[in-house]
Write a structure and sequence with these properties.
single chain; 619 residues; alpha/beta; two-stranded antiparallel sheet; 32 helices; 56% helix
C-alpha cells in the first residue's frame, strides 16, 4: 500500500512552495474537487506540518462577523473559552481595541477592558510575514454570497499580505452563481483578482485508507481490510464516483456484516473477498443514488442471465445491467450472503447476527452437502454439471412423489423447480402435466392435514415472490401461478372453516380486558393484524355478537364498536365486502336494543350507533 503512487504529489509540492515564508505570494490558492473526493482530509493532513494555521469551515456561515469570531477563538483559545458567567460576551469591539463585557446577558455593557490592537488585534498577528496560514474550507456551502466571502478573504490576502488556501467544489459554486445573473459576473471578477492558482484534488485512497481503518473497530475485519487494500481500491476505481466518503461509509457497512464472520469463514479468503467486493459495490451504488430500493438489489443479485431472459426483445439495459458492467470484478450473484441481508445492511443499517450466520451455514461454500436442504440443492442447479443436475433431479422427484415438502414456502419452491426441470427435460413429466402434478400434491397435503395456514407475517417472505431468501423459479409461468393459487385457495377454505373458533377467541380476549380484539381486527401500528382483511365476523350472527358485547362493561362495549368502525372505515380493497350486510343487520339489532334500554344505557348505545356504527353500516 505504501508503494502506491500519490496522485496529489504535485499538489503537495506546490503548496509547500506556496507556504514557504521566504516566498512572497499575493494571491490565494483554490483546491477544487467534487464532494467526497477527500479535499478536507488532504488539507488537514497537509496542515500537520504547519502548526501556525487557522482553519475555518464556511459551512453555514452567514456573516463576516462569524468568521471574525472564529478567527478570534482560534487565536485566543483561553479568552474565548472562559465561562460565560465570568466574562460575559466578547463583543466585536474587542477587535477595535476594547473588550466589552456583558456579565448578565442583558445586551448592555457592564464594563470594558482596554486592550491595544498591537497586543491582541487580528491585524498584527495575521500580517506577520511568518504568521498564520489561512485555510477556508466548504466555500460552496457558505450562506454568504460567494462574492462577498471572497471579498472578505481578499482583504487578508491583498491588504495584509496573508497566504490563504480555499477549498471548494467549484462546479457547485458556478451552478449556484450562474442562476443569479449579475452576481455570477461579480464572482468571476473577484475570483480572478483573488485566486492565483486553482488545483484539482484527485481521489487518493492510498493516503486516506489508514485513516479509514482507524474507524474500523473489529480487529479481524480491520486486519482483513488492511491485507486487501488493492481489492478495495479496485472497487473504488470501478465505481467511477471519485468519492472517498461513499467508500468510507461502504466500509462501515461491510464491518457491520463481517463482524459476525467466524474463523472458518475468514480462512476461505476467496469467499471473503467476494463478500467484500459485493458489499462495497452495492453500498456505493446505493449511496450515490443508482440503487434506490431493495427490489433493485434483488434483481442485481439474481444474476445477469435472469435479467437478460426477462429483457428478451428489449434492447435497453436496466440500471442493474449497467452496474454489473461497471464492476467487472464483482460476482453479484454470489451464493454466500443473500440479497435481503445485503439490502438490509446497506439501506437500513439492519444486521442480525443469526441471519448472517444462518446464511453462511446454508451457503454451498461453507455447508456440508448433507446439511443443505434438498430443495435448495435443486434450486441451485445452474452451476452443476449435467450428471450432477440429473442426480439432484432424481432425488428431487423421489422426495416430491413421497410428499416430503410440507412447509408452504418450500412447497412453492418445489412447484417452481418441478416446472423448470420439466422444461429442461430432467424429469419425465411434460410441462403440460406440471399443473396437474402440483394439484395432486396439494390434494394429498390436504388429506393428511398438512396444508399450512399462516396468520402471522413470515420473516422469510418479506419480498413477494420469494421464500427463505430465494426467488421462486418460473414464477411468471401459468403452471406455477395455477399451482400456487390452488394451494392458497385450499388454505383459505380451511381458514374459513376455523373462523368460528377464532372469533370466539377474540371475544373472550375482549371480555378479559385484552387488546387482541382490536389489534387483530383492524390495521394498526402495533403488530400485524391477522384478520384485518378477512371477513371473519360473518362466522357469528350479528345478533349473537351484539348480545355478547352488551354483556360486557361499558368501556369494553365502546372498544368493540370503535374497532368495528376502524376496521371498516379504512378497508383494504373489497376484502370485507361480505361483512357489509352483517353491519346493516347489526345496526338494526342495536336500534332495537336502544328502544328497550334504560336511560343511561340508551344514551350510551345511541352514541355508539351515531359515532361508530352508522358511518359504516350503509345499505
Amino acid at each position: 500500500m505504501s508503494s502506491m503512487p500519490e496522485p496529489n504529489a504535485a499538489t503537495l509540492s506546490y503548496l509547500k512552495e506556496y507556504c514557504d515564508p521566504k516566498r512572497r505570494r499575493d494571491f490565494a490558492v483554490l483546491l477544487d474537487g467534487p464532494w467526497g473526493v477527500g479535499k478536507t482530509y488532504f488539507i488537514k493532513n497537509f496542515l500537520k506540518d504547519y502548526p501556525r494555521h487557522l482553519y475555518i469551515s464556511l459551512y453555514g456561515i452567514s456573516s463576516t462577523q462569524q468568521i471574525d469570531d472564529e478567527l478570534f477563538r482560534q487565536l485566543h483559545p483561553v479568552l474565548s473559552s472562559m465561562p460565560m458567567q465570568l466574562i460575559g460576551r466578547v463583543a466585536k469591539g474587542f477587535l477595535k481595541g476594547t473588550v466589552k463585557i456583558d456579565l448578565n446577558s442583558d445586551g448592555k455593557d457592564d464594563g470594558s477592558a482596554s486592550v491595544s490592537i498591537p497586543d491582541l488585534g487580528l491585524q498584527k498577528e495575521l500580517s506577520n510575514p511568518d504568521g498564520y496560514l489561512l485555510v477556508f474550507d466548504d466555500l460552496e456551502r457558505c450562506s454568504l454570497q460567494i462574492s462577498d466571502a471572497l471579498g472578505y478573504i481578499n482583504t487578508f490576502v491583498e491588504h495584509a499580505g496573508q497566504k490563504a488556501i480555499l477549498i471548494a467544489n467549484q462546479n457547485e459554486i458556478i451552478s449556484r452563481n450562474s442562476e443569479e445573473g449579475v452576481k455570477h459576473k461579480r464572482y468571476n471578477e473577484i475570483k480572478e483578482k483573488l485566486i492565483g492558482q486553482t488545483i484539482k484534488i484527485n481521489s487518493s485512497l492510498s493516503s486516506a485508507y489508514i485513516s479509514f481503518l482507524d474507524d474500523i473497530h473489529n480487529q479481524k475485519v480491520k486486519s482483513f481490510l488492511r491485507s486487501h487494500f488493492y481489492e478495495v481500491d479496485s472497487i473504488h476505481l470501478q465505481s467511477k464516483t471519485n468519492n472517498l466518503r461513499l467508500l468510507k461509509h461502504a466500509l462501515w457497512d461491510y464491518e457491520r456484516l463481517a463482524q459476525y464472520f467466524h474463523d472458518v469463514h475468514w480462512q476461505n479468503t476467496e469467499a471473503m473477498k467476494s463478500v467484500l467486493a459485493l458489499t462495497l459495490a452495492v453500498s456505493i451504488e446505493h449511496r450515490c443514488g443508482r440503487l434506490t430500493d431493495r427490489k433493485q438489489i434483488q434483481r442485481l443479485m439474481d444474476g445477469g442471465l435472469l435479467r437478460a431472459m426477462e429483457r428478451q426483445n428489449r434492447k435497453d439495459k436496466s440500471v442493474e445491467d449497467e452496474i454489473e458492467e461497471r464492476y467487472r470484478t464483482v460476482k453479484f450473484d454470489t451464493n454466500i450472503l443473500n440479497e435481503e441481508i445485503i439490502a438490509d445492511a446497506v439501506i437500513y443499517g439492519r444486521v442480525v447476527e443469526s441471519d448472517v450466520t444462518d446464511a453462511l451455514k446454508r451457503s454451498p461454500i461453507f455447508a456440508e452437502p448433507e446439511e443443505i436442504p434438498l430443495w435448495l440443492r435443486a434450486w441451485d442447479y445452474f452451476d452443476l454439471t449435467d450428471e450432477e443436475a440429473q442426480q439432484i433431479a432424481d432425488k428431487f422427484m423421489k422426495a416430491f412423489n413421497e410428499r416430503t415438502f410440507v412447509e408452504r414456502g418450500i412447497v412453492f419452491h418445489a412447484f417452481g423447480i418441478l416446472r423448470k426441470y420439466a422444461e429442461l427435460g430432467l424429469i419425465n413429466i411434460p410441462v403440460g402435466d406440471v399443473t396437474l402434478a402440483c394439484r395432486n400434491y396439494v390434494d394429498d397435503l390436504e388429506k393428511s392435514e398438512k396444508i399450512e395456514i399462516i396468520l402471522e407475517r413470515s420473516p422469510t417472505t418479506d419480498w413477494s415472490g420469494s421464500y427463505a431468501h430465494h426467488g421462486f423459479m418460473c414464477i411468471d409461468t401459468p403452471e406455477f401461478k395455477e399451482a400456487t393459487a390452488y394451494y392458497i385457495a385450499k388454505s383459505s377454505d380451511i381458514l374459513e372453516r376455523q373462523y368460528p373458533q377464532f372469533i370466539e377467541q377474540l371475544l373472550s380476549d375482549l371480555e378479559a380486558g385484552g387488546n387482541e380484539f382490536l389489534l387483530d381486527l383492524a390495521h394498526n401500528n402495533v403488530h400485524y393484524s391477522r384478520f384485518a382483511d378477512k371477513p371473519i365476523l360473518t362466522a357469528i350472527s350479528p345478533e349473537d355478537f351484539l348480545h355478547r358485547v352488551l354483556k360486557m362493561d361499558p368501556r369494553k362495549q365502546r372498544d368493540a364498536f370503535a374497532t368495528l368502525n376502524l376496521r371498516h372505515r379504512f378497508p383494504n380493497g373489497d376484502a370485507l365486502n361480505s361483512e357489509k350486510p352483517w353491519l346493516v343487520n347489526m345496526k338494526a339489532f342495536l336500534i332495537a336494543e336502544i328502544s328497550q334500554a334504560g336511560p343511561v344505557a340508551s344514551q350510551r348505545l345511541q352514541h355508539y350507533l351515531e359515532e361508530y356504527l352508522s358511518p359504516i353500516a350503509l345499505s
